[in-house]
Amino acid sequence: MTEASAVLQERSDFAVIAEIIQPGSRVLDLGCGSGELLEWLIHNKGVLARGVEISRAKARQAITRGVSVYQGDIEESLADYPDHAFDYVILSQTLQETARPLQVLREMLRVGKRAIVSFPNFGHWSMRLSMLFSGQAPRTRLFPYEWYESPNIHFLSVRDFERLAARYGFRVERRLFLAGRTRLTFLPNLRSQVAVFLLG
Q1: Which of the four pLDDT bands, split at 50, 70 and 90, describes residue 4?
Q2: Mean pLDDT over residues 162-171, rounded?
Q3: How far does Cα 86 stand from its chain's mean position?
Q4: 67, 98, 130, 187: which could form a disulfide with 138 (CB 3.0–4.6 Å)?
Q5: Rg (CA), the chain
């Protein structure tokens, strides 16, 4: 098993994203990290892949995998792409780290025909219980950081994202809710650890 395939096994949202992407698509991955998802998509789905990553070290790692990556801030980089340049624009577990998430979502839907957004669900029952009983910023397996070290600057739930999509007219084509590798349909705001939305 390649390293990229192993990462798909570890990250349940990557497996769902890989399932959504159609073969031969033009794909832009924002916050692509070391490029494992894009590498897998290139070799298994024949996509034309591009990535944007703010970390210089991770961008270099992605390039050594054969992935075309631009090292920079996604909020600034999106302005450089023309309308509908990609079939899919991916933002996997990065929305909560962006300073202006609404602007990022709008730009994703400008440069891409579809946007795939995954994020950790802050509405999960473990988060609620942690805050209720500790009276402190939650620390769980899903959010292991101290509040002052966390890369997360926005804490959103499934319900928050649904409300945002409805308010700003983002068309939701698919919703997938995950607890580990299990897909959920019942009480996703309470039970899902990670949500994946396909926007059109």
Answers
A1: low
A2: 97
A3: 16
A4: 130
A5: 16
Helix (H, G, I), strand (E, B) or coil at 23: coil
Per residue in 98-131, pLDDT (tens digit) is: 999 999 999 999 999 999 999 999 999 999 998 8
Predicted pLDDT of residue 53:
96
CATH superfamily of 3-124+156-199: Vaccinia Virus protein VP39 (3.40.50.150)
Other CB atoms within a 10 A radius of the CB of residue 97 amount to: 17
Residue with tokens 């209720």: 132
Burial class (CB in 10 A: 0-12, 13-18, 19+), 76: exposed
HSE value, Cβ hemisphere, 13 Å, CA-based, for 11:
22
Give dist(CA 62, CA 43) in Å, integer: 14
DSSP letters for 92-156 = ES-GGG-S-HHHHHHHHHHHEEEEEEEEE-TTSHHHHHHHHHH-SS---SSS-S-TTT-S-----
Closest CA to 73 of 59, 90, 87: 59
The answer on pLDDT for 88 being more than 80 is yes
CA distance 1 to 45: 17
Question: How many Å separate Cα 138 from the centre of its chain?
Answer: 21
State both tokens at 53: 């990553």
